[in-house]
Amino acid sequence: MKKLFARLMMTAVMLFAASMVEAQKMGGDTYVVLGHGYAKDSENVYLNGQVLPWVDPHTFSLKRCDGHQSYRCFEKYVISHSDVFYDGKKLDDASASSFKDLGYGYGKDSFDVYFCGKKISGASANSFRLLKDGYAKDSFDVYFYGEKVSDASASSFSVDENGYAHDTFSTYYFGKKIGD
Q1: Lowest CB count within 10 Å: 40, 60, 113, 126, which one?
Q2: 23 pLDDT band (50/70/90 cuts)?
Q3: Which residues have C-beta within 8 Å of that of residue 67, sequence separation ≥ 6?
Q4: Model confidence over 103-159: pLDDT tens digits?
Q5: Which of 102, 132, 133 is nearest to 120 (CA)?
Q6: How far apart are CA 28 and CA 156, in angstroms?
């Protein structure tokens, strides 16, 4: 058991030393770990150690989520000067100049609404807003973690606590109607 522990410790020290050497190769003192697999230095932005050649390191930053994600954990949208990324994948139709990370995996630009990097068909970007606990709505529909909540009335929909929500006609629990 002691030998196994000693080998594990030696491996960890060697990996740490190798990562420090790699960090020095990637820009030395300017290298900054941003989180979620992203890092940057004065010359490049990296995702999981790979250079993102189309991203400007001087304008690149990670957008923060609202931090109240108790039910699910999501990646953040990453917005460069001309592109939007989610989980390292570029969103081809998203407008970087108007894009906003709303939290809980939701994001929107002037035209479309996204959940976890996928466009929500039929969602109205103009009126779309995040409520809380994974719920969101636009003028016409209610969504729970990107899925439309069947028969929910957007005009009267309100989020309660612990996954519960209601509208004038029904009560919902984690996006599903209860008590029919």
Answers
A1: 126
A2: very low
A3: 103
A4: 888 999 999 999 999 999 999 999 999 998 889 999 999 999 999 999 999 999 999
A5: 102
A6: 55
